[in-house]
């Protein structure tokens, strides 16, 4: 009777397999530990950045007088309130009329976006596509213009608006935000990347420059338009100095000014202040959350140009 010898299977490298898992090399183990360590550090950094926001959120449900008194000594009570209340939000939307102020901010920001894009798109098209003497000089002046801090010209500009009876008007709030040089610069850089042959073919077919801009350049630059709209919206939504200079009528005050009414010379209500600050941050946070991919694409493409 013959016997059959079973030989162990061999791997492609020629080494026999025994059915047991291969030992983890020291290099792989070191890389795995490094990934775990870096992930833990990233989580801790994220929590550190989120902590002030969480403190503001929970502090907005705390009685205003106890927000600062709970800071010392540091403890669990510093973050989590002992007494929960909605009085801060009731005061914001009641006597302080914070809802009306947020509506004013939203109206001013949306109008600025619409008018600003209507003006910025043709300006970017002219500076990127059309050839004329002095084009580079105009573009250089545009760049220098948006690099000058608005605070440097705010006071004399407010005096001009007051002389024109534009103070305490929505138009006075909107006009400074529609000429956004950064938005024009952003769109010009994208328009420069569109092949000139597309425009030349459209012109040969009989299209005007206005038709080329609206039917060719604008549809190709939706991402850049959204990014420019975000720049204009965020600038107007967070504006504080300019409304402070030109608006004294409470019916037309914007949300950042409404927060200033939560404190006086002798009293600070940090609960109301925290609640108002969080409500103001919700709108741009939602916009950036839903439109972040357009913003990131526009920034990367502008860098490539």
Automatic annotation (TrEMBL):
Chain ranges passing through the membrane: 32-58, 106-130, 137-158, 170-187, 216-237, 270-291
Stretches for region Disordered: 1-22
Coiled-coil residue windows: none
Membrane topology of the entry: Multi-pass membrane protein
Keyword Cell membrane: yes
GO cellular component: plasma membrane
Pfam family, one: BPD_transp_1
Domain ABC transmembrane type-1: start-end pairs: 102-291
Record's subcellular location: Cell membrane
Keyword Transport: yes
Residue ranges with Low complexity bias: 7-22
Main localization (coarse): membrane
Gene3D superfamilies xrefs: MetI-like (1.10.3720.10)
Highest taxon in the source lineage: Bacteria
Keyword vocabulary terms for this entry: Cell membrane, Membrane, Transmembrane, Transmembrane helix, Transport
GO terms (BP aspect): transmembrane transport
Alphabetized PANTHER family for the sequence: ABC TRANSPORTER PERMEASE PROTEIN MG189-RELATED-RELATED (PTHR43744), SN-GLYCEROL-3-PHOSPHATE TRANSPORT SYSTEM PERMEASE PROTEIN UGPE (PTHR43744:SF8)
Family named by the database record: Belongs to the binding-protein-dependent transport system permease family.
Name of the protein: Carbohydrate ABC transporter membrane protein 2, CUT1 family
Organism, as annotated: Auraticoccus monumenti
Lineage, highest ranks first: Bacteria, Bacillati, Actinomycetota, Actinomycetes, Propionibacteriales
